[in-house]
Amino acid sequence: MDPKLITIATFPDALKAQIMRGRLEAEGIPAFIADEHTITNQPFLYMAYGGVRLQVTEQDRDRALTVLNTSEAFAVENTPEYFPDQCPNCHSDKVKETTSAAKPSLLTFLRNALTARPSQPLVRRFTCQNCGYKWIMEN
């Protein structure tokens, strides 16, 4: 008889569920993810399914909850490895900001107005005068 699986956590996306599954498996606790592909392919069904479910066997429940409760919270560092006025390729200070004066087309304007889309994000373009590297930063 197969052991019964129970849900110990739900997540809004599969990425966080996979991270927590990896933490459990690193502790020797087999874990399974349910509804991963459904929510990834049809995100509007999130509320109907209750999210991506992380499951373990009944016998591993207490150990798994202990691991999840002692795990660090999800955090993303937003600090770049370089300053905006430095080239990310060669770290030179000889950087020139190039802006394009391209105006959105009438079709783009109408699409944004009719679908209530916000305008395009402000994009800054840079060119390194030392190595020639070009990159874009969104504000």
Automatic annotation (TrEMBL):
InterPro entries associated with the record: DUF2007, N-reg_PII-like_a/b
Top-rank taxon: Bacteria
Ranges where the DUF2007 domain occurs: 6-69
Pfam families xref list: DUF2007 (PF09413)
Protein name: DUF2007 domain-containing protein
Taxonomic placement: Bacteria, Pseudomonadati, Bacteroidota, Cytophagia, Cytophagales
